[in-house]
Each structure stands twice: as C-alpha cells, then as structure tokens.
Amino acid sequence: MTTKQYQKRPTSEEAIKELKNLLGERFSTEVGDLKKHGNDKSHLPAFDPDGVAYPESTEEVAEVMKICKKYKVVVIPYGVGSSLEGHTSALFGGIHVDTSHMKKVIRFSKPDMDITVEAGLLKTELEKWLKEKDCFFGVDPGSESTVGGWCATGASGTMTVKYGTLRDNVLNLTVVLEDGRILKTANRARKSSSGYDLTHLFMGSEGTLGIITEITLKVYQIPKAVSAGSCCFPTVRNCTEAVTEIVQSSLGSLARCEFLNVKAIQAVNKLFETDYTEKPSLFLEFHGNTIEQVESVKDKLAEIVNNHKAEGFQFTSDEEKRKIMWKCRHSAYYASIKLRPKSKLLVTDVCVPISNLPNIIVETEEDFVKEGLSCPIVGHVYDGNFHVMCPIYDEEEVIIERLNSRLVKRAIKYEGTCSGEHGVGYGKMDYALQEHGEVFMDISKQIKKAFDPENRLNPGKIFN
Amino acid sequence: MTTKQYQKRPTSEEAIKELKNLLGERFSTEVGDLKKHGNDKSHLPAFDPDGVAYPESTEEVAEVMKICKKYKVVVIPYGVGSSLEGHTSALFGGIHVDTSHMKKVIRFSKPDMDITVEAGLLKTELEKWLKEKDCFFGVDPGSESTVGGWCATGASGTMTVKYGTLRDNVLNLTVVLEDGRILKTANRARKSSSGYDLTHLFMGSEGTLGIITEITLKVYQIPKAVSAGSCCFPTVRNCTEAVTEIVQSSLGSLARCEFLNVKAIQAVNKLFETDYTEKPSLFLEFHGNTIEQVESVKDKLAEIVNNHKAEGFQFTSDEEKRKIMWKCRHSAYYASIKLRPKSKLLVTDVCVPISNLPNIIVETEEDFVKEGLSCPIVGHVYDGNFHVMCPIYDEEEVIIERLNSRLVKRAIKYEGTCSGEHGVGYGKMDYALQEHGEVFMDISKQIKKAFDPENRLNPGKIFN
After folding, report:
1. What one-character-per-residue DSSP string does A82-140 give?
2. Fewest C-beta in 10 Å: which of A241, B10, B37, B138?
3. Which of residues 178-207 of A touch B (CB under 8 A)?
C-alpha cells in the first residue's frame, strides 16, 4: 500500500499558547503523547497530531473549540484509539480532543432504565458501574473502547440480536459544534417525532460534524436466567445455513449467535489451550426471566442445527462454561495475531442480508485460500456481519488489500455494506463510495459543509 | 386561533403546462381535487395546493421535481392526508405530489424478512399482502395511512413495545431530491456503519428534505400464539403506576400496553355498545411462539396489577375477544368525535420518560377538568406516549390551545417531547422550538438549506 501524501494544516504557535493557557498541563505537545495518539488499532500508517487537549467537561470542550475556530485549527476527537480504519489519524495535523478525563456518570434512572455518561467512559467502567445496579448495556462492543467512540463509529456488538445496535440504544447526545455551541440532540423520551433526527445523524459521523461529549443510553436489567449453546458443522455452508434457519425461527430469547471458522477455532484453542473441535462452529446465548424460559428453546435449536448436520451440540446454564466460551470469542483479535508472531492485524467488516451469508462466507474463504492465505473468520452472523482477521506481514499487505477489495465488491453485489460496525475512517473511503455512489456522497458533503464550513472537524474521513 | 397569513408563491402557467405535458390527466388542477388535498385530519385551517401530480414511479417523481426546479415551484408530498399537524397544507401554494398511484410491492424476501414497497401503499394493503406470506409489519400505526407518510412523519404505533418505532424498522429509503436526483440512503444489510445515517435523517423530515418514494421495511412472522389481558383501576395513578412496574419487569412477550381513561372507555362503550367497566384501564397483548409461552406471563402480570389495586383482571387467548378489544382501542379517534356531534378533533401527542407518566397524566386530567373539559385520553403507555382526544367546537379552540400549550410545557419539564409520533407540521412549530431550543433549530435550518437551497420542499413546516 502506498501512503498518500497529505498537505499539513499547521497548528499555529498562538493557538497552542492559548490552549495551554486554558488547560495548563492538560494540553500536551509532548512527543511520546503525540506518537501514542497518531496510531490506532488498524494496519494503516500513523499520523500524529500537533497537540492533545484533555478537557474535563462539555463546557471545556466548547472553550477548546472556540480557540480552534479562532485560529482555524483542525480538531479530531479521541477516545482510546481502538478504531480499525484510521478514524483518529491526524492526516492534516491539528489537535486531538482526548476524552479520557471525561468519565463521569451524570445521571441514572432505574425506573426509566437509562443512563447519561460522559464520552470518555470505558466499556469496562460502564459495565462495572451498571452491574452494581443489577443492570447492563445490551450492545456489548467487542474491545475496550469508549462510549463516545461507539457513538462516533456507529458500533455494535455480539448482543445486537436481542438488544440492537448502538444506533438503537442511544436516546440523546450532547455535542459541541465547530464554533463551540453546545447542542442537545433530543431528550429522555423513548421515542419522538419532533424535528430532525440529529441523534442518528451524529451516530457514525466519526467526528466530522461535531464532538460528542455526553450520551444517554438505554440500559437493561441483567437477565435472571442465561443459557448457552454450541455446536460445530462439517462445512461452513452447513453452519451458515443453520444460522439462516435460526434467524427465521425467531427464538425470542436468543441474545448472541456467533460464528467461528476452523482457523478461528484453531487460533482460540492455541491461545487458551481449549479443546473445541476444529470445525466451523456456532456459539449461542439465550437471555430470559427464568431458567425454564431460556431452556425451552433447547429442543427447537437442536432440531434446527441437526437438520444441518451439527456435531457435538451442547447446551448449558453453567456460568463458568459460558464465561470461557465468550472469553475465547472476545479474544479472537489477539488469538489471530498470536497465530503469526510479529504480524499486524487487518480486520475486514462486511454485512449482508442473512440469506446471502452462506454464499459470501464460502466464497470468501475460497478466495483467501486461493491467494495462499487462510485466516480466522468470526461473525455476529445473526445480523449477516462477519470479520476476516488477517494477521499479516508488510509484504502481504498488497495481497490482503486485493482480497478485501474483492470481499467488499462481493458484499455490495449481495446488497450489503462495506462496513457493518467499524466505520469508514480513511481506510474505507473508496469502498464507501463504491457502496453508496455519487449522489449519496455529494449530499453527505453538503451536510458536512452545513456543520463544518471550514472543514476543520476530522477532515479526510468518510469522504475526501 | 388566529390564522397566520402566508405570502403565496404562485405556480406559473408554464410550470402547470409542462407538468400536464408530462403526466396528462395525472396532473390535476380540478377544484374538488385541490380542496380535498388542502385538508388533513387536524383541526388546523385548510390550504389548497395549485395542482396535484399523480406520478407512477420514482423516475416520474424525479421528472416532476426537475420541472418544479426549473420553474421554482413549491412541492409537497401527499399520502392520504391523515396527518394531524397540518403537514401537507400548502401554506405557500405549490403542488402536491400525491403517491396514490405508487402502491407496488417491489420485492420481498421471506428469508431476510424484509419488503420494499412504494410510498403510496396503504396500511391495510400492506397488511393484506403480508398476511398471505404469514408475515406482518410490527409497528401497527393507528389509522389508515401510507408507508411513505409513516416514514415522513416518524410514526409509531401500538406495538412499539415489542417491535420498535418506524425509525427502528426501516432499512433503506429511495428519495427524490429537490433537483430530481435519486438517492438511495442504504442497502438491505440489517446494520451498517458506512457513511452518514441518511435513512434516519429522512425519517420524520416531513417532506422538507426530499420526497420518499420507496421504502424497505423489516417485517415479522405472524406470532404463533397471542394472548391478551385487560383490567381497570380505581384511579389513573394506580393504573399508570402499574404500567411503570410492568415496564421494569421486562415481560419478554409483551407486544401492546395501552391505556384508556374513564372518558375513553365511556366513548368506546357508547360507540360499540360494549360494557367495559368505566374506570382507568389497561389493554395488553402478548406475542410468542407457543401458547405456554404467552400464558406464562399471566401470574406475574396479575401480581403486578393487583399490587396496584386492579379490578376485573382478565387474560385470554380467545381471538374474537382480542379483536373486539383492539377494534375498540383503534376506534378511539372516532369514538371521541361521536361524544360531541359535529365537533372536530384536536389530538395531543406528548411522550415522557416512563417514571414521569403517572404525574403527567394525573396533572393533565386535572388541568382539563379545571377548564371545564373532560376528554378521552389514550396512550401507548409503555413508551410514555399518550394522546388527549379533544372533540371541540370552534369557540373552544382557544381553551384547547391553552391546555395543549400547558401540556407540552409539562412534557418538556418532565424531560419529554412535544410530539411522540405525530410530527411537527406547522401546528407544533412553536412547541418544537420550546423543546429543542435555538441551537437545534439553527443547525436544522442549515441541514434544510443543504438539501433545499431554494426552500421549495414543504416550506413552513417543522421550523419557520
């Protein structure tokens, strides 16, 4: 991959001075800090910012934005840099607004089952806080990341089957606009038809329209009963066809339905010394109010998977076994890297209508094998979303780009999307254009201009 | 209510000639037709358009839009005129694009449980079509209306509890932009994080950003088992507090949870000669795969409502009894008008967080009684959404406006919205501004300008 050249838009000395005046030590130009912020978890090259601001409140973000407007400084919001398509890279320089000092829980209502938090709160921190209230956040994004990052990316997770995506679980955002004005996109009502849906417009806007600082999320009671099932199949086609039948059977309590191909199972077995049968597999989970309820699906589920030649069907309410299974699934990223020492990981992320899932996964596996690469594939397959985890060395990058390009073409052919949950960043701009076409991109640019006339908010992301 | 004066933006003779050339008899300037299109189901004054176009396809809508651009003609999309806030009123003149010739089912996939239809398809037509495939559309908006109208308004319905609002059930829209370009907002994947969420931006945009011509909806299998429950309570507070406890108990199979106050029950009893006890009541419905599943909630539900002094708790899987109950609930609009011969109906529509529902309903009933009016109240109370159905005579309009204004203030105080599902139109513009404030409205106008620089798409709606 040849690295594109970007014309830097330098951050002036006066701007830096004024930001230091505002934030003191919470504005950093220390080289180590800049280096850390230039990188994310993608395979893409790093671009360091000129400075990093660590505001402590929405109001302080607003003050930062006003200074940046005054000096025409480029601004990029930053959570923990867990993005996979270069979302936070400072392609043109500018400053990062790092939300790691914004972790407050602002309010919570158990009767209303909603919580308002600051953007920098981490997944593990939110989980811990909610657990004490016997609640949890249903979406369960895969990696350690911030609530603000989830919203900016339009993320989802393993439990989308039952609880929806991030987009379905945000009631209200507080956003700082490019000129420092503070916008509330909605209120706490569960639904509204009053005015434009600005909440969803910001979800997945990747910092290009404003900086999300506070988020009101729907939360859920921890299910009183949970059971889990797993099985494997002779072929990927058997496995994915079983999934399409599971989807059509609308098993009400299904909360997770995850696919792992042979290579993914091998990677997991290697990392954790587990002994999962090395065949295409499904990991499933059911949530309900009573054990009877979650176990009532067992026979129907067994019938479906057995129709598709399932092997080793297991069904358990044992918490320890479940925990191990999900630890394995959630560690697929690291397990994949461990397959090839010192490799870096490229993670693909397409999503197609469920009826096209068997074809696209089979064709993708074949395509990778043809190019001499055999990679782990995992997927939130109930949604038709899956990831090829490609641990690669530099010299293989060109092959993987070719494979990913063909994968995206295949997803578009199958009426799907080039990004199910990781966003566009600058890694997938060409694919997003292929998927949506010129009219979509043109109107998107018009919207961008309405919010950010000077193109200072995370420029060079989503579209050129 | 004093009628505001609007400066007409006349539709030129050349424009009308060219539209007639394009559509022949499907472009009407017949007075009866214009009169019919000037009115909706609201209490607001009528504003007739200068002409009505009846295109037969997205491409024909695009041709109409090009002509309108050429001659700077105002354009307003029109379904069946069922809106309740004057959404389709031609305040400034211009033409209606009536979608009643666009009713095709374009595609359907049972494995993917989705359907693509043209905007003019009616609720009853969609229901009939889907029933033959053993499917239904989960949202169930209350009145006869078009799929395009649902989307443009951001509607919802009685089954939002289980199946979500319209916003949760649309995968993709085809929209004709102000210059005649055709935009597809997404594809058929169940989720995506590729690019701005234009689908949701158009949901509830009330024709101000473009004309929705085709819609891909999620559909659902007709539940194999359905049961229904009903009971009444000594007071509104008992009843609504029972609702908040039902919400918190997350009864998985709950699909409907509807409130009717004493006056609403009286109106229904009068219209249908039913004998529901004339007390604040709940009508509930449960959907599942088996009778055992839907009946398994009975004891828990009885326990909850009995905690709140319920009377006459009934629970049945009998289809006939259910049908009568929902016919009564769905006819509340007509039943309310029938209470006062020759009255017209004003329907309020606020939505608040569920914990604030008991207070707001009690206070609202008291406020109405104070003004000498006692009106039916019905609500999709699981969402915190309710409607006062006010059958009024002209001279009472000023009282009702006062009551509605106080109701909206109350909803905003309780962190709710001025419109749960009916939209803003021109009837609620002041309330939307009160709810959202200047920054929200200012950025909304910037978006509007990006889509519609000449302000020709349904001008004077949502904001001035």
Report:
1. --SS-TT--TT--EEEE-TT---EEEEETTTTEEEEETT-BHHHHHHHHHTTTEE-TT-
2. B10
3. 181-198, 200-201, 203-205
